[in-house]
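Morning. Coffee machine broken again, so started the prediction first thing and wrote up yesterday's gels while waiting. Chain of 143 residues, entered below exactly as on the submission form.
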Amino acid sequence: MVSLSVYFESPFWVGVLEIVEDGELRATRFVLGAEPTGPELYEFLMRHGVALLERAEAAPSVPLEERGERGERPVNPKRAAKLAARAAARVTRRGTAAQEALRLELESTKSQARLDRRERERALAERRREVAHRKRIERRRDR
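Came back before lunch.
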């Protein structure tokens, strides 16, 4: 039986190809880079699948008993989805250094705009209070 697992190992997405034969496990690990979509993963496997299988076949085998807790107890799919969502929430998508710089600049611009907006609203409220105060004084004088 052959299985493929794709997971995030900061800062890249990694794939593990496992081959289970005659109670023994052989595996190979490969780096994918950015998060692959389904079609990209399919294309990657079509292009490099044979080489990955050969690498896994050449890898030293490990008896399944030594595989550890994961081999004995499968993970509930709902729990796996929840853990993946938590991991994705912790990860910030950085991209290139230029993209990171643009993101920081955007954040600083947003915070400055927020401060400017508060100051304008405060000044407008002060102006309205002054106008109301003057009107009140004028009404008293007219009596």
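The first helix runs from residue 38 to 58. Going to sketch it on the whiteboard this afternoon.
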